[in-house]
TrEMBL record:
Catalytic site positions: 11, 130
Protein role: IGPS catalyzes the conversion of PRFAR and glutamine to IGP, AICAR and glutamate. The HisF subunit catalyzes the cyclization activity that produces IGP and AICAR from PRFAR using the ammonia provided by the HisH subunit.
Family statement: Belongs to the HisA/HisF family.
Catalytic activity: 5-[(5-phospho-1-deoxy-D-ribulos-1-ylimino)methylamino]-1-(5-phospho-beta-D-ribosyl)imidazole-4-carboxamide + L-glutamine = D-erythro-1-(imidazol-4-yl)glycerol 3-phosphate + 5-amino-1-(5-phospho-beta-D-ribosyl)imidazole-4-carboxamide + L-glutamate + H(+)
UniProt protein name: Imidazole glycerol phosphate synthase subunit HisF
Localization (cell): Cytoplasm
Organism expressing this protein natively: Psychrobacillus psychrotolerans
Length: 258
């Protein structure tokens, strides 16, 4: 059985690490490279950087901070945000990223996933998938809709259908962020993660909502996630990665202990 991964997420805005709540209201929390080094030493399995400046302002990702991260960390890290072409994949990988994530550009032109996978391999291609639930009149969730541009624009696309298409095209894994859960610390959207895990045959990283260690255990056991993205609970010192992993190990979750 593959080990479950704990993956800190670091949002980058204007070359500074920030934390959002529901993709809005950023608060500066430090330097991207220094935070990456700290979490690496704490026992993170991977890191994910989300360049929200590039996504929202239609800018190219700045490579300088990525190069600094590559110099500071010795675990795999992904960069998501502002990726629009195969050349963007090339530039980010050359700067030191191990994987490159694409969200809005893949929705607009799905062939980008296949083009990147054909050149660099599926293991380098990550689909960023931002989701919002759609409710019926009884306030029951009937499906989830894909959003783009850092959660600001709805697409009308069904999350499961898009995830399946992306996997067929060449995405090697999916980071699924539940926008309504992001930064709220009340737990992941376990129902959505479970659905994706059952319907898509590539790894699913659960994102958005972790506030307690129990939330991570739940998304692994009930949601069948392959990895859990954590942010607020470690950025603000509520837990260390070591504490998270020790707890999960005590619950018989297969994690890499440090």
């Amino acid at each position: 059985m593959l080990r479950k991964r704990i993956v800190p997420a670091i949002d980058v805005l204007n070359d500074q690490a920030v934390k959002y709540i529901q993709f809005r209201n950023p608060t500066i929390i430090g330097d991207p490279a220094e935070l990456g080094k700290k979490y690496t030493e704490d026992g993170a399995d991977e890191l994910i950087y989300l360049d929200t400046t590039a996504s929202l302002k239609n800018q190219d990702v700045k490579l300088e901070w990525i190069q600094r991260v590559a110099e500071q960390v010795n675990i795999p890290f992904s960069v998501i945000g502002g990726v629009r072409t195969v050349d963007d994949f090339k530039n980010l990988l050359r700067a030191g990223a191990d994987k490159v994530g694409v969200n809005s550009a893949a929705v607009m032109r799905p062939e980008l996933l296949k083009e990147a996978a054909d050149i660099y391999g599926k293991q380098c291609v990550v689909l960023g998938l931002d989701a919002m639930p759609i409710y019926n009149d009884d306030q029951e969730i009937i499906r989830w809709e894909v959003y783009t541009h850092s959660g600001h624009e709805k697409t009308g696309m069904d999350v499961v259908e898009w995830a399946q298409q992306a996997a067929d095209l060449g995405a090697g894994e999916i980071i699924c962020t539940s926008i309504h859960k992001d930064g709220m610390k009340n737990g992941y959207d376990v129902a959505l993660i479970k659905l994706l895990s059952e319907k898509v045959n590539i790894p699913i990283i659960a994102s958005g909502g972790a506030g307690k260690i129990e939330h991570i255990e739940e998304v692994f056991s009930d949601g069948k996630a392959d990895a859990a993205l954590v942010a607020s609970m470690i950025h603000y010192g509520d837990y260390t990665i070591g504490e998270i992993k020790s707890y999960l190990h005590s619950k018989n979750v297969n994690v890499r202990l440090t």
